[in-house]
Design brief:
about 240 residues; alpha+beta; Alpha-Beta Plaits; 2 domains; 10-stranded mixed beta sheet; 5 helices
């Protein structure tokens, strides 16, 4: 029987989702808890392997188990997990379901907090930006990214050698909160290249501070040259919000 878990975690305590020798990961914690609870070795597959420091509101994983799990399994497994991880739900799915390959859309959020001084309560969950940003210019620049494009300009170069860099973005927009001090970039697409959202966020910050114009975003996209875009901002501001199937 195949089961789907929806999981939330604070990525600050982990060196990413994927297992790494000698380093604590979300996958290791989940697999160890499941293996202990079910008294058998359990291997999970996830919708997307988040990097070190990246958070998840709705990560999805699947695993196989020969028995029927109780309806309250998510409550039973959580005491075996670190406080920075929580299983939100557990459901039986068809054997053909795959957390990664069955996914149709994913939504990520990148948070930018505007502050000219150190913001200790935000540093784990947002990029702290000391510059004044023209948010309207940032919003204008988002428009050209909607649709199917080659996003090579926003991908970690060594991660895409010999691979397609064409992806489709269905929606990208910026929401403002906390009196305009918190900017949340939402991006929904059929899939994402390594560091793609973080590179887009870094480029938008450069547009907001005036290093690029809103019109430059189209030229950066068309160039297919990672050197033309802004820097890849840190992982702490990134959240995997949800996965649609």
């Amino acid at each position: 029987m195949r089961y789907k878990l929806t999981v939330s975690y604070d990525g600050s305590d982990f060196y990413g989702f994927q297992r790494q020798r000698g380093l604590i990961s979300v996958q290791e914690c989940l697999e160890e808890a499941l293996s202990t609870k079910l008294n058998e070795p359990v291997t999970i597959a996830c919708a997307g392997r988040t990097d070190a420091g990246v958070h998840a509101l709705g990560q999805v994983v699947h695993f196989d188990h020969d028995g029927e799990l109780p309806a309250d399994f998510s409550f039973r497994i959580n005491p075996l997990l670190p406080e920075s991880i929580a299983v939100l739900s557990c459901e039986r799915v068809p054997d053909s379901f795959h957390a990664r390959f069955s996914a149709k859309r994913k939504t990520y959020r990148y948070d930018i907090y505007l502050s000219k001084i150190h913001a200790p309560l935000k540093r784990r969950y947002a990029h702290i930006c000391v510059y004044e940003l023209n948010v309207e210019n940032m919003k204008k620049a988002c428009a050209c990214l909607v649709g199917e494009h080659d996003f090579r300009s926003f991908a970690l170069a060594e991660s895409v050698r010999g691979k397609s860099t064409v992806r489709t973005i269905y929606d990208i927009h910026i929401e403002e909160s906390e009196g305009g001090r918190l900017l949340s970039l939402y991006v929904t697409g059929d899939g994402f290249l390594h560091n793609m959202v973080r590179a887009i966020a870094g480029t938008l910050i450069d547009i907001g501070r005036g290093r690029f114009s809103p019109e430059d975003m189209q030229d950066i996209l068309d160039s297919k040259d990672r050197r033309r875009a802004g820097k890849t901002v840190e992982g702490c501001g990134l959240f995997l919000v949800s996965v649609e199937y």
